[in-house]
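Running this now, will post back.
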Amino acid sequence: MAAKDRVIANAEEIRRLRQLHEWSQLELAEHAQLAKGVIEKLENNKYVFRLSVQEVARAFRVNVNSLLLPEHQTHPDTFAEHSKTPIEQYMERYLYYYKRDSYVSAARLWGAGSEFITSERLEVTYIHKRFKIDPALKQDSEAWISRKTREARQLGRSFFPGPNTQLIYWRPQTKGDSNVGKELVTLEITVGPVSWFDFEGLNGRKRGQIKYPTDYEYYLGLSEIRKNKDVSHSKLTNIIDCAITIVTKDGYVGFQRRSSRNASVPGKLSSSIAENINRFLDDTSLDGTVLMNPDHKLYDPSITAHQRYACKGVPHPFSTVRRGIFEEASERLYEYWHPNAIKLAGMSYDLESYQPDLLFAVAIDLDKDAVLDVCQRYPGRDFHEGEIQFMRADFEDIDTQRTLSSPDWVPAGQASVVRVIELLNSLKKRLGTGFQGAFEILATAQ
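Update: finished.
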């Protein structure tokens, strides 16, 4: 290999990013699929191959030039052609773009333009069929869970199975409504049981490491996801996450910096609220309005009945959204949203954790400072999981661009924020109005 392909990295920046992610050198090596010795060279100003720095940049989701000393940096245009990971290139036409060359590492599965649905137009079916790990992956999965359990104890983080929910199938449907004289979109989803240990032992262990087309099909069945909207062909699993973006009446959208106490992606940026659908806590009537376990607060929060608990109703995503806001932000915010203020704006597929995510917008009839004040004075019980912040709902705003370009984003959270701003822009164009008109639709439309 030519001498020009050997470079010296910015050791200080690599250490900073590694510590931000709370990774050891070995963990960074695993994410970048490099030998630990290469990471040691990178952090000690030794010559390495440029390709090794590119792999580390992809693991951190940053431009490779930011990890190189000035004399080894390439022209931005040269790097732009190679900035996407192979899996991002494979799914390129489905990515979320918020500027010409700025994108989210998540594929759009459903939801674009001014499209959204309310709880009345989401049909949930629950099939109580236990998830079984592929025998070829079982031993490595169990070893990973043992390791993560030890790490969680050492760091004082929560780490337990939990009765979670996986997406099996989804299908958008267009139905006529004689009352409004137009066709309305509904979304049908089929879900089933899964535990956090199932997910972490498979998806968590492989996070960011599936890089080649043959692996996409072997592990993910990605062609089935793209063509037939069917995630059941994956050898991994998924946990449906609700990535919730708060929209305020003065034109801001919320996001959060996740606490270092979280076992999942600590210290990263995400949407205002990120909440997994819990089969027990979110067991709800078919219309998503009546909880089946209203006294759930009396139960041990570390309940491990994930392999046994069968829903009496369905684990409803809209119930998850309400619970997430109550627990991570404030129950008092409920006083400031209209009955239809929760909108499902899209569904994405995270190209790092290999799972689908539901993207929600919640219109709160307060300005951003008032939302922060309510959350500070009346915090939810899990307020420690993250700190809510705000940016303008405007892709042209410099501060918004700077925030969205951070390498610290969880793809699902970033997709939620980008999709909600995209939705607001589309509503403004369709209505021929400003932000207030679009906000009114989000807050009240059925």
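The chain has two domains: 6-72, 86-444. More later if anyone needs it.
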